[in-house]
């Protein structure tokens, strides 16, 4: 009895000393953090790059030596110090990065799952060191979470993008391509799965295990070793842990994190039950707008592109990175929506868009791709050391100058022109654009034909049939009509779009239609393979920016009173947003002449072909406005090198709801196609 009391006193004494050691550790860590902040300030004032991998390796080597001398497990100490060094970097980035919230405002961060899920851990880890007040919210699905960011209900979302065991999270990639969002950070969490139960029971007593399907797939070997045990997929790991607590059944267990065990008061039966001990998940931080990071912060840049339809297209795009000595850290391909057997490529590489060399590389990549979207630059959490080949750009003095991604920056002005990406200097080769199975911009001119407006199913079907029969390539039809008078027929809107898409699909023709409002761009792009910007909207800059963000070819008609330079400036708006699939359309300009509706400026064809790499087609219908004058001008357009024609046709022009006087009857169209047919057969 007395001995027991003595033992108790001794144990209490040891525990007391342990508490003192822990307190000392915390104080030492706080002192370390103060020093780290001092170093951060020094770096911010131009003292060098924020991350110095050599310095980190030196620190680790030294602590490993010390820990050996002190009789500690070097692996344990290395792990601990990697965590400490990671936290130091986060602290410095938080003090140097862009302000995350207005003074006093709470930062709202979303993650998928419930409290204690790995995404929640990543969120707290990422936003914790910033010092600002932060609220965290679990969301049911990725989609719901990202929509909340888009609507401004969340400031940031934490989206898992890849795992070192189970690979890429394809659903996350697909959502990024569909939503116009930016990436402003990344976080890596070590996924160390634990088997959790209500109490510390023997594992052999467990009859049912719940977890997220991905977590279950990462623990296949362990789960197979359990006898008489049923494995069940559950919405998320933390939710599975909560269920164990709620159901109070000693035969049930969950696979989740150690934090989930703490949160729900569960016992850990076994740690590290995943098949691969090194199991990490990389999460990206999604925001509405891209952020600008100081060049002292080692960053990654993330983007997505589609290739042109030509041999070696992917290689040509990726070689831009090699040419600029930029090291790629991730390459992923996903099916390109609405384009079967075509792919979107997602690339991450080490580099910061604030560095002119990096933004130059992105511009060069845009010239080789058919569609490019830059998600943004953000501080890198994973750095793979590469053996350097060739010269690497010298680390230049850090700058605090705000530089946006290329799409948001004014283009470099060449000879005071409004455009650079549209110029021949930027891309010496002709751009050939694929629309459905048709090539625009190659040696064979294409014929786009159809009614001014879609009026009925029968009307658009009959036009589609004749276009197909006569060897035309694209079916046109207006759904939203820009009319001079608000009382004139305005088009049948989305009903017409359905009829147009239906007719195009039935006769195997891609369809083009005009989009007039930025809000209509997404929905119209779902149904039409080719988008048209009408002459009246050529300088509607918000509309141009919107079509620049969708993965669809765009035809820009020349404004009624626009010079060629202004027209190429309009094309530049689309290209600068990332969409490289722009076709120009000459449709007549306004002059003193009133005998024709407008004056067809055929001189624009050779001029544009010299100034720009973009294809140019000619619309003689809107230019002359009288059907019998259309065929000779159509032939002239082909003769002077146009890449195609846009012709209005109607089964009964006298009854057309718009532009009947300039619409060719089917007979006239047939005669025209007979004259130009051999030129335009693809
Ligand atoms: C059209 O093509 O339907 C049209 C309205 O043309 P534009 O914008 O050239 O007047
Ligand atoms: Mn018309």
Can you describe this structure?
Strand 21 (530-533), helix 16 and strand 22 form a beta-alpha-beta unit. By secondary structure, the protein is of the alpha/beta class. It starts with a helix and ends with a helix. It has an eight-stranded parallel β-sheet with strand order 24-23-22-21-20-19-18-25. Strands 1, 2, 3, 4, 5 and 11 form a six-stranded mixed β-sheet that branches. The protein is elongated. The longest helix is centred in the N-terminal third of the chain and has 46 residues, at 2-47. Helices cover 38% and strands 20% of the residues. Helix 1 crosses helix 3 (74-96), helix 16 packs across helix 17 (564-577) and helix 20 (630-639) runs parallel beside helix 21 (666-680). Bound molecules: phosphoenolpyruvate and manganese (II) ion. The site of manganese (II) ion has 5 residues, from loops. Manganese (II) ion binds at residues 452, 622, 648, 658-659.
């Amino acid at each position: 009895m007395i001995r027991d009391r003595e033992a108790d006193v001794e144990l209490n004494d040891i525990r007391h000393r342990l508490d003192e050691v822990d307190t000392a550790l915390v104080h030492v860590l706080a002192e370390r953090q103060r020093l780290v902040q001092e170093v951060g300030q020094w770096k911010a004032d131009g003292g060098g790059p924020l991350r110095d991998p050599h310095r980190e390796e030196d620190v680790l080597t030294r602590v490993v030596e010390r820990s050996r001398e002190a009789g500690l497990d070097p692996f344990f100490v290395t792990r601990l110090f990697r965590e400490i060094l990671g936290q130091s970097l986060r602290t410095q980035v938080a003090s140097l990065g862009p302000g995350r919230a207005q003074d006093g405002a709470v930062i709202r961060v979303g993650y998928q799952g419930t409290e204690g899920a790995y995404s929640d851990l990543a969120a707290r880890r990422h936003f914790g060191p910033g010092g600002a007040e932060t609220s965290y919210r679990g969301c049911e699905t990725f989609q719901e979470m990202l929509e909340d960011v888009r609507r401004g209900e969340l400031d940031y979302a934490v989206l898992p993008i890849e795992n070192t065991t189970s690979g890429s999270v394809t659903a996350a990639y697909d959502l990024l391509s569909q939503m116009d969002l930016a990436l402003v950070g990344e976080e890596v969490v070590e996924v160390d799965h634990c088997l959790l139960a209500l109490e510390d029971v023997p594992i052999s007593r467990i009859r049912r295990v719940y977890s997220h399907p991905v977590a279950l797939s990462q623990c296949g070997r362990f789960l197979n070793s359990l006898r008489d045990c049923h494995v069940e997929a559950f919405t998320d790991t933390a939710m599975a842990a909560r269920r164990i607590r709620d159901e109070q059944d000693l035969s049930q267990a969950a696979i989740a994190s150690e934090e989930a065990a703490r949160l729900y008061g569960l016992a850990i039966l076994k740690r590290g039950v995943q098949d691969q001990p090194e199991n990490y998940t990389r999460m990206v931080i999604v925001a509405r707008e891209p952020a600008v990071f100081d060049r002292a912060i080692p960053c990654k840049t993330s983007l997505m592109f589609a290739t042109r339809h030509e041999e070696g297209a992917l290689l040509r795009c990726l070689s831009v990175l090699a040419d600029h000595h930029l090291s790629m850290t991730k390459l992923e391909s996903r099916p390109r929506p609405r384009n079967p057997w075509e792919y979107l490529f997602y690339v991450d590489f080490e580099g910061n868009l604030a560095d002119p060399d990096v933004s130059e590389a992105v511009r060069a990549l845009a010239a080789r791709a058919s569609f490019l979207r830059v998600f943004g630059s953000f501080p890198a959490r994973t750095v793979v050391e590469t053996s350097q080949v060739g010269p690497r750009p010298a680390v230049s003095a850090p700058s605090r100058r705000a530089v946006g991604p290329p799409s948001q920056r004014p283009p470099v002005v060449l000879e005071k022109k409004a455009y650079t990406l549209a110029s021949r200097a930027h891309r010496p080769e002709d751009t050939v654009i694929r629309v459905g199975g048709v090539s625009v911009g190659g040696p064979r001119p294409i014929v786009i034909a159809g009614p001014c407006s879609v009026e009925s199913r029968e009307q658009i079907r009959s036009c589609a049939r004749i276009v197909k029969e006569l060897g035309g390539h694209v079916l046109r039809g207006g759904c939203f009509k820009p009319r001079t008078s608000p009382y004139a027929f305005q088009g049948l809107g989305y009903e017409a779009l359905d009829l147009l898409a239906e007719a195009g699909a039935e006769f195997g023709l891609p369809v083009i239609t005009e989009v007039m409002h930025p809000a209509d761009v997404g929905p119209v792009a779902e149904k039409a393979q080719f988008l048209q910007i009408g002459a009246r909207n050529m300088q509607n800059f918000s509309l141009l920016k919107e079509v620049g963000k969708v993965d669809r070819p765009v035809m820009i008609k020349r404004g009624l009173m626009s010079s060629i330079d202004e027209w190429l400036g309009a094309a530049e708006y689309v290209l600068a947003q990332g969409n490289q699939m722009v076709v120009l359309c000459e449709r007549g300009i306004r002059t003193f002449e009133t005998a024709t509706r407008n004056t067809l400026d055929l001189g624009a064809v050779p001029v544009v072909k010299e100034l720009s790499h973009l294809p140019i087609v000619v619309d003689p219908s809107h230019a002359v406005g009288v059907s019998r004058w259309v065929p000779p001008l159509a032939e002239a357009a082909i003769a002077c090198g146009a890449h195609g024609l846009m012709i209005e046709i109607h089964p009964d022009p006298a009854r057309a709801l718009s532009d009947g006087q300039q619409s060719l009857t089917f007979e006239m169209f047939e005669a025209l196609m007979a004259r130009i047919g051999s030129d335009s057969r693809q």
